[in-house]
């Protein structure tokens, strides 16, 4: 029998504050820092110990996330070299030629966005796909809004919520849930498939209806794009790298399968490959000047990585107090895992069925995702999954954590909140509020179906 102490209730109070702040679309970093300070003071009984706890929490979270920060930064840096070489244009051009009509354009544009986002993340992929393939898709008859929906749902939705190559999202979720990232990845596969099929099919149907109802408007838009020509200098080096880069990452995937590389080992392989391609591309493009140019690429890449993860480190530092092993690294020996204890206490006080647990996890991911950051909800949903796992040993924690991850990323990653999808809206030339409205029905339908499947698998 677990007895909840004053510290547990203080922790829950700050969890509630964080959720409310995020629900109001404000950043929760100050409440998280104050929460760590308060709990550290109560636990140690000393102000000095409390202040140390704040720093310890950030170090623990930073250490847990360091590997994924580095690999994402390197991949973004590598993508900048590809753009300089013109290799990105060569890579995308064959897929662009397949877009012969609006129906085909939707799926080719979306699938291309998904694949590229898996390897270089959605933010760089928006510029790449938007600059090269979006104009061709519109010329093929796909409305700009339909193109924006395809890029958004496949990139910031399917690719970012699954994150199977870089594994940033499952790594964060798994750390908070006390699991290996490969467990979350495997558990997410059926959920991601359901979410992907429902959202994209519903979106495709709605776009087809829009095209049929507004043919004259879309024809004028298509004609406007006909006048836009792309002039990209293609060299033999562009072609070489357009072949080399995809082959290198395909080889990584094969190596992961052959050598059974998972989690950090798989991430290390992808990161090392990106670093070597970055160096090679810089040398071949700039020669001696590459000694300075690569520094610019790396700096830009790491600025992007830190920009994404800086708030997540602080939020993660607070929610890591919910797990016993990490809580002890922050507060000291003997510190409890606050959310784990709460989960056990709930199991003794309230009969928790799988449907109720799944809905709570879904709601937590969506509410916290309202801040517009796809990764901010992950420490919370992972911690909640671990807490319910402590309460019900028969529960499949990995499935529950994957559900929360999908809910949080699809909401916060930028599919149904206007402030989260501005880059896609800008490059497509559409209103972000209208894009969020168009995405709403497909995404909500997908989340509902995915939750049902998760309940069956839990």
TrEMBL record:
| Transmembrane parts of this sequence | 6-24, 29-48, 54-77, 98-119, 125-142, 189-207, 237-259, 266-284, 304-321, 397-420, 440-457
Protein name (record): Transporter
Source species of the chain: Heliomicrobium gestii
Q: Which UniProt keywords apply?
A: Membrane, Transmembrane, Transmembrane helix
Signal peptide region:
none
